[in-house]
Amino acid sequence: MRARWRETVNNRVMVAMKLILGDITTFKGDAIVNPANSYLSMGGGLALTIKKKAGPEVEEEARQHTFVPVGEAVATSAGNLPCEHVIHAPTMKVPERIPPENVFLATRAAVKLAEEMRLKSVALPAMGCGVGGVPYGEAARQMKRALNTGIDVTIYVSSEAAMTAFKQTF
User: Fold this and answer.
1) Which pTM value belongs to this model?
2) Closest CA to 128 of 95, 161, 168, 81
3) What letter does residue 151 receive in the DSSP assignment?
4) CATH superfamily assigned to domain 2-169
């Protein structure tokens, strides 16, 4: 299932917005975002899926940047993924439940880094909704607050419930 639209967020017109029910590791644009922990250990959740599909070199490269606080982001190569980069934007210090504000901080950091890298397209998951335990609707609201960019943004969700919540927010 796909939804596509142009959106004005924070008085800035985004180039394109897409919402896809599917696997973020299939994204063929410039970068995908990993909602990481600050130690950039890719041992669970979406991070583990990315590592399994990209190869262990992505985690090895990421770990060279550790410790990355919530609100900052680093980029690595994408290994075997069809995109060029993985942006690691911690939503948590260690794997744990998080406050919704962390979703905003991590999303904003990922988009800022993508802009600094002059990327044209980036894919984000439903940030903080896995290990972090943030409800879909709240995560969508926090992500929308942070998505003030001219980059093409694709949000990948993994369930119908997430798709519904993100459609209602965006």
Assistant:
1) 0.92
2) 95
3) S
4) Leucine Aminopeptidase, subunit E, domain 1 (3.40.220.10)
Instruction: Scan for tokens 């990948």, then name that residue.
Output: 156
Of 140, 155, 146, the C-alpha closest to 24 is 155
Q: What radius of gyration do the chain's Cα atoms show? A: 14
Contacts of 65 (CB under 8 A, 6+ apart): 40, 74, 76, 88
- At 61-118, the pLDDT tens digits run 999 998 999 999 999 999 999 999 999 999 999 999 999 999 999 999 999 999 999 9
Residue extents of the structural domains in the chain? 2-169
Q: How many CA atoms lie within 13 A of 164 on its CB side?
A: 4
The CA distance from 78 to 155, in Å, is: 18
